[in-house]
C-alpha cells in the first residue's frame, strides 16, 4: 500500500510540473503586455519600462518560470493587476463558495444516482427501469441553467423558501450559507445525477451477469441482499471514475450557474480575469484546478484499491 | 420417496423449447451422472431445481425435492432451500467467487444467513469446512481473497460454500471441466468423499463419459432437451442399448485414421529446433527496495520436430506449455537459448526479418469464438494471415485461396460470406484451422484445440487434423492436458513439469509406461472410460459374490 501511494503521488507531482510548464508557456505566448494593461494605454514608455522591471518581466524565461513556481509552492500566487490584491486572497474568497457548492452537488447527485441506478438495474426491462432511465435521459439532455431557472421560479419566486440568488456568506451560520447554495447545487446535481445513474445502471447490469452473483444466489442469499452486498461494490469502479470527473467539473465548470444565481465563485473569477487579461489570476486559478484534479484522481485511485483488493498489489 | 424427483419437466425460453418431458430421480446418498453435449439442457435442468433460471423461462411439470414442490415454491422458501438443503458447484472456478470479498466472508455468509449464527460461530464453521476441503488455516486463512488462490483452490472454496451446511443434495455442474487432469482427480475424489461422509445425493453434470463412469451410480443421458436413456452406470455404458449412448461412447474413444501420416514419407530433416530455451518473468517485489527474484517459466528446454511430424506437449496448467508455445510462434522472446525454424533463428530475428518465416508457422487456439473478430466475415478472417506472403494476391486470388482452404477443412466456399456467430463451435474450429493452413505453413501449433468441443465434434476435428497432416504434410505441436488427444493424434509426446521437459518419447510408450513422477501423475489422473467401467464391473461382481 505504501509503494502504491508513493507511486500515485509521484505521478501526481509529475502531472503538476508538466501542467505548470504548459500553463506558463501558453500565457507567455499570448499577446498582450501585462504592464501595459496595468498602467493603461496612456502610460509613458519610461513608466512602462520601470513597471516591467518591477514586475520582473525582463528576467529570462526560465527565471520567471522558477520564480512563479517557487512562489506558488509557498502560497504566493502573485498580485492581481485589476483587483490589486494578492491572487491567493481572491481565490480563497471565491473557494469558500465554489468548494462547498461542488461538495453539496456531488453529495446530492450521488445520493440520487446510485439508488436510481440500482433500482433500474434490478428491474431491467420492466416499467421502473424504463421510466427512471427515461427521466435520466431527459436529465442528460436538458442543460443545467434551465433547471436553475425552473428552480428559481418554483422555490424562490413562488414558494419563497430560499433566496433567488446571491450568497449570504458563512458569517450568518452554516445553515444560511447552505441555504443560499441549495438551489444552484440542485441545478448542478440533476444533470450529473442523470449521467451517474446511467453509469451505475450499466455497471450493475454487467456485474449482475457475473458468475459470482449466481454463486451468491445459490447460497440462498435473497436478491436484494445480493444486489447491495455483492453487486454494488463490484460496480463501484466505473461509478467512482465518473464521480471523480464530475467533481472536477463542478469545481471550475460552473460559470453559467454562478451567473444565474449571482454567486461569487471561482468560475466567475476566472471568466472576469480572462476578459480583463489579468493573466496572473488565470494562471493561479488554473494551477489550483490542476492541483485539485490531481488530488481527486489520487483519492479515486485510493478508493479503487479500497473497493477492489486486486488493485492493491501494484 | 426419492430425494429429488423430476417428472415431465418442460422448459421454454420465449417460444424456444429447451427441455421436453425430462424425468430424473436421485435417492439419498446416490450419485447420478447427467451426461450430454452442449445445448442438451443439462445445466437448465439443474438451474430449474435451484429455481435460478433466466427470467424469461417458463416451466411445466413437477420437481419435488424432499417433499417440497419446487416449481410452486415461493422465492422465500427457495432462499431457505438454496445453500442449506441444496448446494451447487459451478464449472468456472475463476469467476465463481466474488473478487472483493474474502473467502472467509463468502463461506460464512451463507452459514450466518441460514442458521442465524453470530459472526464468530459462523467463521468457526467456515474454518472447519475449509479445512475439510483441503484448505488448511496455516496457508489459507479466512482473510484470503479469491485472486490469491489458484483455480483448483478456488473450486475447493466453492465446494466448501456448497457443503458448509451439510445439504441433502449437491449439484455439481461440470465441476472439473476448467481444471487440468490432476486437479480434476483431486476435486472428484473430494466430492466423492463428501458424498460418502454426509450421505448427500449428488447430481454430477458432465460431458465426459469417463468421469461419469468413474463417479456415478446411475447415468441419465440427455440430448436436445430430452432424456435418451437412463439406468445403472456400468450396464448402460457397457451395453450401449441406445444408439446415442453408443455414439457418445465411440466418439469419446475415437482414434483418427493416420495411415497417411506425413512424417513417414517426409525426409528426416528437422523443421523446428528448440535449443536450451529459458524464459524468465520478473517476480513480484517483496518490498520497495528489494530486488525481485525472477520466475522461471521455461527452464532449459530442448527438442526438435521433424517435417510432417505430430508431437504432443502435455503437462498440468501452469507448467509453462503455453509460454513455450508463444516463444516458438515468435510472439515472445526467450531469455536464453535459441529457437530455429527451417534453420532460421526465429528467436533472435527482428520483426521485419521474421515476416517471411511467420507464414511457415500458424496457430490454432482453444476457444474458436474468442479468437475471431465477430464483426468480420469469414472471408476476411481466413485471409488475415495472407499479408505474410511476399507477393500480395489480388482480390480474386485471395477469394480462391479462401475457398480452397474452406474446402480443405470440410466447409463450403459459400461460407466465406457469413459471420462467425452463424457457425457452431465445431465449424468455428474448422474456420480457425482454415485460417491456419491458408499460408501453407510447415508447422501448426495447436493450443488445446479440441478441449472446448463436444466429444462427437472433437472426433471430427481430430480426423481433420490427421487428414490435413497427410494431405499437406504439415507438422503439429499439440499442446494439451488431455492424454486421450495426445494418444489419438501424435507419434511422440513430451511431458512438461515446472518449466522443464521431464520425459519424452513415443506416445504409446510414455503413456503406457510413464517413468517420471509428473508423467505418472498425469497418466493416473486421466479419466479413461474403459478402465472406469472395468473397475465398476469388478466392484459389482465382488459385492454380488459377497451377497451370494
Compact overview of the structure:
By secondary structure, chain A is mainly α. Helix content of chain A is 77%, strand content 0%. Chains A and B meet through helix 1, helix 9 and helix 10 of A and helix 2, helix 3 and helix 5 of B.
Please provide a written account of the structure.
- The complex is a heterodimer of chains A (314) and B (548).
- Chain A is mostly helical.
- Chain A folds into two domains: 72 residues, no CATH class; 225 residues, Orthogonal Bundle (MetI-like fold).
- Chain A contains 13 helices and no strands.
- Chain A is globular and about 85 Å long.
- The model of chain A has no long low-confidence stretch (mean pLDDT 87).
- Chain B is of the alpha/beta class.
- The relative contact order of chain B is 0.10.
- The mean pLDDT of chain B is 89.
- Classes of the chains: A mainly alpha (314), B alpha/beta (548).
- The interface between A and B is medium-sized, with 25 and 35 residues.
- Chain B: This is Peptide/nickel transport system ATP-binding protein.
- Chain B: Keywords: ATP-binding, Nucleotide-binding, Transport.
- Chain B: It is found in: Cell inner membrane.
Amino acid at each position: 500500500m505504501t509503494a502504491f501511494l508513493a507511486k500515485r503521488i509521484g505521478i501526481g507531482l509529475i502531472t503538476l510540473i508538466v501542467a505548470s510548464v504548459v500553463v506558463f508557456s501558453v500565457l507567455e505566448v499570448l499577446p498582450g503586455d501585462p504592464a501595459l494593461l496595468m498602467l493603461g494605454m496612456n502610460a509613458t514608455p519610461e513608466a512602462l519600462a520601470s513597471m516591467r522591471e518591477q514586475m520582473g518581466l525582463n528576467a529570462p524565461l526560465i527565471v520567471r518560470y522558477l520564480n512563479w513556481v517557487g512562489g506558488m509552492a509557498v502560497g504566493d500566487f502573485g498580485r492581481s493587476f485589476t483587483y490589486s490584491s494578492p491572487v491567493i486572497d481572491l481565490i480563497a474568497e471565491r473557494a469558500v463558495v465554489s468548494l462547498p457548492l461542488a461538495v453539496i452537488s456531488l453529495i446530492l447527485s450521488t445520493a440520487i444516482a446510485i439508488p436510481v441506478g440500482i433500482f433500474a438495474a434490478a428491474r431491467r426491462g420492466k416499467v421502473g427501469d424504463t421510466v427512471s432511465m427515461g427521466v435520466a435521459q431527459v436529465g442528460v439532455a436538458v442543460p443545467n441553467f434551465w433547471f436553475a431557472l425552473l428552480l428559481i421560479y418554483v422555490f424562490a419566486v413562488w414558494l419563497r423558501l430560499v433566496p433567488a440568488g446571491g450568497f449570504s456568506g458563512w458569517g450568518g451560520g452554516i445553515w444560511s450559507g447552505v441555504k443560499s447554495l441549495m438551489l444552484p447545487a440542485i441545478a448542478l446535481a440533476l444533470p450529473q445525477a442523470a449521467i451517474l445513474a446511467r453509469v451505475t445502471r450499466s455497471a450493475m447490469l454487467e456485474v449482475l451477469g457475473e458468475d459470482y452473483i449466481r454463486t451468491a444466489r445459490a447460497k440462498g442469499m435473497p436478491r436484494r441482499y445480493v444486489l447491495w452486498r455483492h453487486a454494488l461494490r463490484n460496480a463501484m469502479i466505473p461509478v467512482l471514475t465518473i464521480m471523480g470527473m464530475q467533481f472536477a467539473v463542478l469545481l471550475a465548470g460552473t460559470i453559467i450557474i454562478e451567473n444565474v444565481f449571482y454567486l461569487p465563485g471561482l468560475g466567475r473569477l476566472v471568466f472576469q480575469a480572462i476578459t480583463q487579461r489579468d493573466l496572473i489570476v488565470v494562471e493561479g486559478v488554473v494551477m489550483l484546478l490542476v492541483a485539485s484534479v490531481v488530488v481527486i484522481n489520487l483519492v479515486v485511485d485510493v478508493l479503487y484499491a479500497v473497493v477492489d483488493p486486486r488493485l492493491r498489489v501494484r | 420417496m426419492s430425494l429429488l424427483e423430476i417428472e415431465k419437466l418442460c422448459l421454454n425460453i420465449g417460444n424456444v423449447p429447451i427441455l421436453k418431458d425430462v424425468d430424473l430421480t436421485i435417492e439419498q446418498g446416490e450419485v447420478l451422472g447427467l451426461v450430454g453435449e452442449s445445448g442438451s439442457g443439462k445445466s437448465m435442468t439443474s438451474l430449474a431445481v435451484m429455481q435460478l433460471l433466466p427470467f424469461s423461462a417458463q416451466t411445466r411439470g413437477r420437481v419435488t425435492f424432499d417433499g417440497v414442490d419446487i416449481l410452486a415454491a415461493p422465492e422465500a422458501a427457495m432462499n431457505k432451500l438454496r445453500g442449506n438443503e441444496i448446494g451447487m458447484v459451478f464449472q468456472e472456478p475463476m469467476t465463481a467467487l466474488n473478487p472483493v470479498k474474502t473467502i472467509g466472508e463468502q463461506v460464512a455468509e451463507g452459514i450466518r444467513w441460514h442458521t442465524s449464527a453470530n459472526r464468530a460461530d459462523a467463521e468457526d464453521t467456515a474454518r472447519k469446512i475449509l479445512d475439510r476441503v483441503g484448505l488448511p488455516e496455516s496457508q489459507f486463512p479466512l482473510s484470503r481473497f479469491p485472486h490469491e488462490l489458484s483455480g483448483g483452490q478456488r473450486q475447493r472454496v466453492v465446494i466448501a460454500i456448497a457443503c458448509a451446511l451439510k445439504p441433502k443434495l449437491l449439484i455439481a455442474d461440470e465441476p472439473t471441466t476448467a481444471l487440468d487432469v490432476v486437479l480434476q482427480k483431486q476435486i472428484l475424489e473430494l466430492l466423492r468423499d463428501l458424498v460418502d461422509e454426509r450421505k448427500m445425493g449428488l447430481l454430477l453434470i458432465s460431458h465426459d463419459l469417463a468421469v461419469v463412469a468413474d463417479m456415478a451410480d446411475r447415468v441419465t443421458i440427455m440430448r436436445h432437451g430430452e432424456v435418451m436413456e437412463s439406468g445403472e452406470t456400468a450396464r448402460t455404458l457397457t451395453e450401449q442399448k441406445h444408439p446415442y449412448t453408443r455414439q457418445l461412447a465411440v466418439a469419446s474413444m475415437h482414434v483418427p485414421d493416420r495411415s497417411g501420416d506425413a512424417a513417414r514419407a517426409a525426409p528426416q530433416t528437422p523443421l523446428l529446433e528448440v535449443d536450451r530455451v529459458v524464459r524468465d518473468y520478473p517476480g513480484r517485489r517483496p518490498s520497495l527496495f528489494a530486488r525481485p527474484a525472477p520466475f522461471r517459466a521455461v527452464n532449459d528446454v530442448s527438442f526438435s520436430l521433424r517435417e510432417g511430424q505430430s508431437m504432443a506437449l502435455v503437462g498440468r496448467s501452469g507448467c509453462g506449455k503455453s509460454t513455450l508455445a508463444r516463444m516458438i510462434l515468435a510472439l515472445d522472446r526467450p531469455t536464453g537459448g535459441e529457437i530455429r525454424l527451417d534453420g532460421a533463428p526465429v528467436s533472435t530475428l527482428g520483426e521485419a526479418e521474421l515476416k517471411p518465416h511467420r507464414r511457415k508457422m500458424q496457430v490454432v487456439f482453444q476457444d474458436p469464438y474468442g479468437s475471431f473478430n465477430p464483426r468480420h466475415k469469414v472471408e476476411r478472417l481466413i485471409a488475415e494471415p495472407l499479408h505474410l506472403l511476399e507477393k500480395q494476391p489480388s482480390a480474386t486470388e485471395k477469394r480462391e485461396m479462401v475457398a480452397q482452404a474452406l474446402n480443405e477443412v470440410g466447409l463450403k466456399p459459400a461460407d466465406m460470406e457469413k459471420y462467425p456467430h452463424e457457425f457452431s463451435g465445431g465449424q468455428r474450429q474448422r474456420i480457425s484451422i482454415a485460417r491456419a493452413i491458408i499460408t501453407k505453413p510447415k508447422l501448426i501449433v495447436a493450443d488445446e484445440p479440441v478441449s472446448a468441443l463436444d466429444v462427437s465434434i472433437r472426433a471430427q476435428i481430430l480426423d481433420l487434423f490427421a487428414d490435413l497432416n497427410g494431405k499437406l504434410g504439415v507438422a503439429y505441436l499439440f499442446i494439451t492436458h488431455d492424454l486421450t488427444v495426445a494418444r489419438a493424434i501424435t507419434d511422440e509426446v513430451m511431458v512438461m513439469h515446472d518449466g522443464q521437459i521431464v520425459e519424452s518419447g513415443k506416445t504409446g510408450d510414455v503413456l503406457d509406461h510413464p517413468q517420471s513422477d509428473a508423467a505418472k501423475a498425469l497418466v493416473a489422473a486421466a479419466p479413461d472410460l474403459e478402465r472406469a467401467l472395468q473397475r465398476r464391473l469388478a466392484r459389482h461382481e465382488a459385492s454380488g459374490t459377497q451377497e451370494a
